[in-house]
Amino acid sequence: MAKKTTIQEFESVFPKLEEVLVEHAQSYKLPAQALEWYKKSLEVNAIGGKCNRGMSVPDSASLLLGRALTEDEYFKAATLGWMTELLQAFFLVSDDIMDGSITRRGKPCWYRQDGVGMIAINDAFMLEAAIYTLLKKFFRDHPRYVDFLELFHEVTYQTEIGQLCDLLTAPEDVVDLNNFSMEKYRFIVIYKTAYYSFYLPVALALYMLDIATPENLKQAEDILIPLGEYFQVQDDYLDNFGLPEHIGKIGTDIMDNKCSWLVNQALAIVTPEQRAVLEENYGRKDKDKEAVIKKLYDELNLEQRYKDYEEKVVGDIRGMIAQIDEAHGLKRGVFEAFLAKIYKRSK
Ligand SMILES: CC(C)CCOP(=O)(O)OP(=O)(O)O
Q1: Any signal peptide, and if so, which residues (predicted)?
Q2: What's the confidence (pLDDT) of residue 172?
Q3: Taking the model in full, what pTM does it have?
Q4: Burial class for 216, CB neighbours closer than 10 Å (0-12, 13-18, 19+)
Q5: How far apart are CA 66 and CA 69, in angstroms?
Q6: Residue 93 in contact with residue 110, Cβ under 8 Å?
Q7: How would you class 186 by CB atoms within 10 Å of its CB: exposed for 0-12, middle for 13-18, buried for 19 or more?
Q8: Ligand 1 centre distance from Cα of residue 63 (Å)
Q9: Active-site residue among 59, 123, 147, 235?
Q10: Interface confidence: ipTM more than 0.85
Q11: Does residue 141 carry a catalytic annotation?
């Protein structure tokens, strides 16, 4: 019988990994001040999230095996999971600078913390580098070591092309709503979110168990990418309708001129007068203009539109899960468990 991990159990693995990373830094005789800085960056930026990505590696491995993991299997799967959380930390530290975000996981963004500033850019690079230190330490002799390396490299690149398009579609000083479309939106979110947040953890579990056949990887991708799109739509919805004290971050999409799911939905249904309101107020660094957009979103009843979307897309995803061919090691439970982690989430 598969066993689901808990956040406590998953987080209990991190200190051991942090010790490995600190020892690696010490092997270069890193001065004490820099070492302390690195430790703090690891602890502040890797810990404190929901760990959906990280916990999905051991959860998926246990579901694929159809049994609880042994202690060593759990440690290895959780280590791969923490590598996805280090990748997440690398992206969040960077993204918060690019978006001019204020809070993250209920605290000031790392770059906004005392004395950090643009050192955060180098800290982000070091969070990414930590992935490969752990991979070499614990998986150098694994038959799929090169596949792990290539997977992390490819998924990082996919996320970066998504982020590039996200930023180019949301120039700070040039608001042109004709620049937005659902087609552009889908490309952006598939690459900036879906691959690293949903495909990566399951692909890691498949490689760890050495059942990452092209068929299994393709079947997994065909479901996990739509799941990742849904997850980003949720994030866009929460950016405006979520409670900052509950989601742990203050929404910035409207002022950041983002090609958000919400503005794309609005563009599809506004009257000419309402479109003029969008044109006049969207994408400006102005709280009063932001408030006008938030009021328009309420008038357009976008909250209900999101809830209708959620029921439709989850029905479609459940239909895809039901079609999975389990003959080559894949298990429907892997995707049902991932969906259950995010369905109707409020943060
Ligand atoms: C929307 C996504 C790309 C960024 C936030 O991801 P997340 O909600 O999993 O964040 P946490 O790691 O803080 O739980």
Answers
A1: none
A2: 87
A3: 0.97
A4: buried
A5: 9
A6: yes
A7: middle
A8: 23
A9: 235
A10: yes
A11: no
